[in-house]
């Protein structure tokens, strides 16, 4: 028992940690000794992190601690100055199966205001974007009226995508499919972009503060959906959030970042006081689901 505790503690310390919940599951994301800087100041240093199939990783840290940058590196949108990133076992620079990855960037709703496209059309652009690099696909609404959905199984091991309506049903917005996206509330728009990320039936969902401005009932619904997709489809989820209390109750694994990764492990393994050290004031974590 003591040996097991020691092993779990070893896995949860700084640096090169494997996903502590599922040691046998295949690695979906592997970051090895990643460093990055936009200018002279380092933004990330020595970050090593493995996320395994079915894991739900919560990425937390203060403003400017490098969370979005880390997501961009693992999606191949930024090139690390040192170290490497792998997706589904392939170097991210040569990775092409972008339909396997759904990405909701920070504040996507801010882009939606002026678009004349309907909700359904915005969701359909997720299929077009899945053919290219996430975030490099066409902006929502730029290919309106021509959904790329092709029903039935497709070649090359790629599963049949969801229809935009199916994806909207997952987030409870089917009834708004024909409404212009600009005429939805901010929280509803966030859900539309989640549906857009889910439409290609991804195996990895990367979410940058997806619940910002979303009410408690909708948050609950979101976590239920994530649980369902993880159980049913083995979905892997990486989510940036500032709501540390809720996140630590929901995720299987927590990664705390402030330029360096200073904790990676099951939320209940986090030492009391560690968050206060990271944020500079007391922070409460809650764990009850695992
Ligand atoms: N395009 C950019 N050019 C220059 N500096 C940048 C750029 N993007 C981010 N930065 C800087 O890099 C650092 C890390 O930013 P990043 O967005 O990764 O942090 P974050 O942890 O996601 O922050 P937040 O919680 O506020 O969203 C910050 O100091 C930020 O000012």
UniProtKB/TrEMBL annotation:
The keyword Methyltransferase is annotated on this UniProt entry: no
Family, as annotated: Belongs to the ABC transporter superfamily.
Record PANTHER family: METAL TRANSPORT SYSTEM ATP-BINDING PROTEIN TM_0124-RELATED
Compositional bias annotation for Basic and acidic residues: 1-10
Region (Disordered): 1-24, 130-163
Descriptive protein name: ABC transporter related protein
GO molecular function terms noted in the UniProt entry: ATP binding; ATP hydrolysis activity
Annotated keywords: ATP-binding, Nucleotide-binding, Transport
PROSITE patterns: ABC_TRANSPORTER_1, ABC_TRANSPORTER_2
Limits of the ABC transporter domain: 29-283
UniProt biased composition (Low complexity): 139-160
Pfam family, one: ABC_tran
InterPro entries referenced in this protein's UniProt entry, alphabetically: AAA+_ATPase (IPR003593), ABC_transporter-like_ATP-bd (IPR003439), ABC_transporter-like_CS (IPR017871), Metal_Ion_Import_ABC (IPR050153), P-loop_NTPase (IPR027417)
Keyword Kinase: no
């Amino acid at each position: 028992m003591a040996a097991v505790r020691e092993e779990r503690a070893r896995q949860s310390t700084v640096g090169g940690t494997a996903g502590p919940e599922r040691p046998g599951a295949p690695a979906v994301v592997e970051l090895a000794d990643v460093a990055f800087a936009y200018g002279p100041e380092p933004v990330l240093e020595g970050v090593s992190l493995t996320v395994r199939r079915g894991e739900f990783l919560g990425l937390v840290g203060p403003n400017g601690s490098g969370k979005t940058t880390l997501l961009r590196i693992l999606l191949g949108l930024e090139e690390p100055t040192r170290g490497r990133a792998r997706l589904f076992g392939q170097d991210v620079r040569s990775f092409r199966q972008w339909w396997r990855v759904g990405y909701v960037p920070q504040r996507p709703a801010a882009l939606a205001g002026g678009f004349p496209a309907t909700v359904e059309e915005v969701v359909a652009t997720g299929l077009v974007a899945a053919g290219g690099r996430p975030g490099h696909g066409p902006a929502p609404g730029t290919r309106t009226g021509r959904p790329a959905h092709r029903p039935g199984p497709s070649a090359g091991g790629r599963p049949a995508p969801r229809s935009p309506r199916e994806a909207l049903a997952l987030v409870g917005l089917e009834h708004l499919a024909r409404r212009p996206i600009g005429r939805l509330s901010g929280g509803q728009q966030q859900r539309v972009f989640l549906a857009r990320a889910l439409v290609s039936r991804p195996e990895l969902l990367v979410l940058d503060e997806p619940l910002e401005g979303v009410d408690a009932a909708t948050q609950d619904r979101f976590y239920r959906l994530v649980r369902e997709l993880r159980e049913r489809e083995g979905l892997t989820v990486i989510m940036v959030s500032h709501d540390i209390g809720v996140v630590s109750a929901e995720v299987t694994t927590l990664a705390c970042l402030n330029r360096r990764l200073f904790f990676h492990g099951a939320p209940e393994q986090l030492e009391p006081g560690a968050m206060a050290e990271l944020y500079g004031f007391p922070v409460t974590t809650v764990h009850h689901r695992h």
